[in-house]
Amino acid sequence: MSSNLKTTNLDEAVLEYKLINDIRLADTGTPTAIVDATQESGTLYYLSLDTSSVTTSDQSLKLYLTTTEVTVGTTAPDVQIFVPHGTRLKVSFPAGLPYTGFSASLLTQALNSGTANTRAGANEFSILNVVTS
Amino acid sequence: MAVTKSNIANRLAETLVIDIDANGTSEDNVFSGTTLASKIYQVVIDNTATGAATYVRFQYATSYSKADANAAQSDNLRLYAPANQSATYVFPEGLAFTTGLSFIATSDTGDVNGTAYTDPGGTVKVTILGGT
């Protein structure tokens, strides 16, 4: 697991939710995915992706929800969302979206076979926040 | 497929598109003719009648181009509904699309497909709320 990835379980006696935070999703030219971040199946309720520090390259956020075995460029994402650079994506799932495992990658190539993120600056990082249960 | 489109007074969402039988045949430029939809605010995929996952695959274009390994075009937006379930996606600030919005519904996730995308195994209803 990346040192930039943090997963927190809230007090299950109060709230049965988990928070996932990655402050540098896709911080290299050929990024790896964060794989099976919650280490168990669950339900996705909210997601945000902040690309406000990315100055030129539009991004494709790819979520892999039906498997825990993910290879970027080979595994087809279940959910894929185009996120322009310099914006903040917010998605809520009011009824929840069940997953087998929660994995994510961020690329500048939309095709399943894409493996690269050609963001321009070395200090341009996208921040992922997720709420699951 | 049977698509209906109607305007909704006032904001948030101003144009509603419903496809009661979405499948692998593309619905092209579904917001054509209205000035009240440049963003997607909500998508509901009713997959309750289908025993396998369905993927609704959107391109921000006036037609859906089947992607292949050599094509630059692929999905701008791909949403998923598990087998026998509905899935609701809400985009509170909207997802802006530019040229147009076209989509298919399929059980395929692959970019390479010989002749056509596979239709869902049952009836799939897709509801899209658009706005400005």
Characterize the structure shown.
The complex is a heterodimer of chains A (133) and B (132). Chain A has one domain: Sandwich (Jelly Rolls), CATH 2.60.120. Helices cover 0% and strands 43% of the residues of chain A. Chain A is built from no helices and 8 strands. Chain A has strands at residues 5-9, 18-25, 42-50, 59-64, 79-83, 88-99, 103-107, 126-132. In chain A, the strands form 2 sheets. In chain A, strands 1-2-8-3-6 form a 5-stranded antiparallel beta sheet, with no helix packed on it. In chain A, strand 1 and strand 2 (18-25) form a beta hairpin. Chain A starts with a strand and ends with a strand. Chain B has one domain. Chain B is 0% helix and 39% strand. Chain B has no helices and 8 strands. Chain B has strands at residues 3-7, 15-19, 39-46, 54-59, 77-81, 86-96, 102-106, 125-131. In chain B, the strands form 2 sheets. Chain B has a 5-stranded antiparallel beta sheet with strand order 1-2-8-3-6, with no helix packed on it. Strand 5 of chain A pairs antiparallel with strand 5 of chain B, so a sheet runs across the interface.
